[in-house]
Amino acid sequence: MNTSAVYLDHAATTDMTPAALAAITAQFAATGNPSSLHTAGRRANRVVDDARIAIAAAAGAHSSELIFTSGGTESDNLALKGLFWNRVNANPAARMILVSGIEHHAVLDTVTWLAEHEQAELCWMPVDADGVLDLQAVRALLEEHHEHIALGTIMWANNEVGTVQPVPEFAALLAGYGIPAHSDAVQAFGAVPTNFADSKLAAMSISAHKIGGPVGIGGLLVRRDVALMPVQHGGGHERKMRSGTLNAAAAAGFAAAATEVADHLAEEAARLSGLREYAVQQISQLVPEAVLNGPRDAENRGTRLPGNLHFTFPECEGDSLLFVLDMLGIASSTGSACTAGVPQPSHVLLAMGRDARSARSVQRFTLGHRSTRADVDALLEALPQAYERARKAGMAADESSIHTAGTGFTR
Amino acid sequence: MIYMDAAATAPPRQEVLDTVSPLLTRDFGNPASHHEAGHQARRAANWARAQVAAQLAVREEEIYFTSGGTEGANTAVIGGALGNPRGRVVVASAIEHPAVLEACRYLVEFHGFTLRLIDVTADGLVDLEHAAQLIDDDVAVVSVMAVNNEVGTIQPVAQFAALAHAAGALMHTDAVQAAGWLDLAPLAAAVDALSISGHKIGGLKGSGALYLSGKHRFVPLLHGGGQQSGLRSGTENPAAAAGIAVALQVCASQRAQGLGEGYGPYLIEKITRGLEAKHPGSVRLTGSGSQRIGGIVSFVFPKTAGETVLIELERKGVLCSSGSACAAGSTDPSPVLTAMGYQEQLAHTAVRLSFGRGIKENELSQVANAVIAAVGGLLPASPGAA
């Protein structure tokens, strides 16, 4: 890549793997709408079918459970709105949604919309200082409100601090009351085991471009006894849950990437968590003030995403550090790519109990399929001076005077 | 094998692949990221937005990139109706694509709207007089497609827009089938929302562009990270956006050269004459003879049954369809032809030949001959014919 020498933002998006690129390129040369009945259509349909089987297998699901979408955001929207509408249709008194404060905006904004426009009631589940869901609290909430709960949602792994959640335990608790559970597994899928069938989830969101597939395609795994009201209406594709011409090329690319990550899950997790632990140890010596957020998981037990590093660098605006690091050739992030723009405190860290000031002083480094020890070493070399320079710029009082974006892009 | 189903999907153009290739490899960043890789992706997405805005002669802030035509139509119709509900009535033509009709039905089922359908004439023109009766002060959104996907009829969108605007309603046009053949600027100038799809014009599948007038409020269909001014959340796809931008540019330059203008009339003339000479009454053009785009040629074959012509054509190496690919495999007759007054049996014999401006001329004559031979082979020789 010619833009940044060292790319440590694989959680925002990662480049396509050679296998995914080859699969998608091969499909560009062919044509056909998978819904067409002629040979070109049937050929495209076989490509989609094969991709469906491969992706479902990688996610521990049956191929008939996979609904293709345009990405993680659409999957979350479809799961939450679809489940909510269907449950409310069956029981108008059940309008509560169990949700945590560390969710991705695709979940948070969707449930907020449901609350504002569809009379949903949000019931917040607490997390601990590491960002782990408090299952005891969930039990208590269920006991008290189960008759009014439409659904519950918990992300499988957090996109900012990398915390892996006890999803199967959560789903089992809800299943005890017959309440469907959804999980946004966009960051977890392909990084830690996420077996849909074993999880007892009703629905699980996944995305291709976070695992080395193309941007613009994702999936929602929907258990076969669950029906969802669609978000996107039309020709009736995908079990009538998601209309729109099926994208054979992107599906093939998604499948290639999914198969690769599933085949190498354990060894890649070991490799990346080894790099991560090396970085954690080195950073604690190079920048003693730095505080790792989320579980450290030094032994790679699966409590943190293997490629996720997330630190608080005290008295330093996250955006300043990002800017200086970028000048030094290191691409990082202050949190999710969606909220970058104005120095706002991370909602994830606030939910984990941090104060607004320290929640702004954070930096995320995420490793991916082509990250190496040399990339980590480059970070270790740049970080102390970058921190020094960014800290000198200080913290903005209320609003940042530092405009790192320069893109005209808001939010 | 000659592919005559461009209205269902077309392969990406070489110019598109050349442009998107670096965005799928080296410059893969997320436009929302604030490092250089993100800035690079942002520049690509901005470039694409500027190109599409220029093609539609609208402001860049009024262009949104979607996952395709279905999402675009859903956002325009649902987002427009919920953002500007007025008397909770939506009006659409009876021959709209399911992306529009099903979006309207969702508004009916879940938001208490009423749907009023505008009749069409026998030649597939949406009835202006009927529209005038249906569009009143209660109407939130009027949606009439610019070009019908099955019979290629060009609709007088500006006149429907005038009716909608006189009543205070928003006007959306599904321009998915128009994009490869018509100048989109006058259409965009007439309406408040216009949706197109990338893969029908040589862009990538999974890409769409949507014009939403900045003067009106539209409620987003997808909620999340707040990308694209909050109207369309979800990681932006610079490759898809750049692809649709290049595809529109190529279409515009082919249109400026007049490429392919005569292809539709040629096919209609040759097939009709060839069949009528031997088998009078064996072929009928569907849709308007004059108000149609050059890239959709559609017939019914009264003396044949079911989809036999279609199957015979595939055997002869011509891939085409009876109508919308979404409905392929359904045993129901085409709702478009039904709305135009065709009986079920006749509607089942429909064949749609659709192509882009770049199709080779020798392929066109092969297709015409194949249609004549396919239909002729299914009919007993007519005793009265010369």
UniProtKB/TrEMBL annotation, chain A:
EC category name: transferase
Family listed: Belongs to the class-V pyridoxal-phosphate-dependent aminotransferase family. NifS/IscS subfamily.
Entry EC number(s): 2.8.1.7
Cofactor names: pyridoxal 5'-phosphate
Coiled coil: none
Catalytic activity: (sulfur carrier)-H + L-cysteine = (sulfur carrier)-SH + L-alanine
GO molecular function: cysteine desulfurase activity
Record carries keyword Protease: no
Domain Aminotransferase class V stretches: 6-379
Protein name: Cysteine desulfurase
PANTHER family membership: CYSTEINE DESULFURASE, CYSTEINE DESULFURYLASE FAMILY MEMBER
Keyword set, alphabetical order: Iron, Iron-sulfur, Metal-binding, Pyridoxal phosphate, Transferase
Superkingdom field: Bacteria
Native source organism of the sequence: Glutamicibacter protophormiae (Brevibacterium protophormiae)
Pfam families: Aminotran_5
UniProtKB/TrEMBL annotation, chain B:
Domain of life: Bacteria
Enzyme Commission code: 2.8.1.7
Gene Ontology molecular functions: cysteine desulfurase activity
Residue stretches making up the Aminotransferase class V domain: 2-366
Catalytic activity annotation: (sulfur carrier)-H + L-cysteine = (sulfur carrier)-SH + L-alanine
Keyword terms, alphabetized: Iron, Iron-sulfur, Metal-binding, Pyridoxal phosphate, Transferase
Cofactor: pyridoxal 5'-phosphate
Protein family per UniProt: Belongs to the class-V pyridoxal-phosphate-dependent aminotransferase family. NifS/IscS subfamily.
Protein name: Cysteine desulfurase
Source organism of this protein record: Glutamicibacter protophormiae
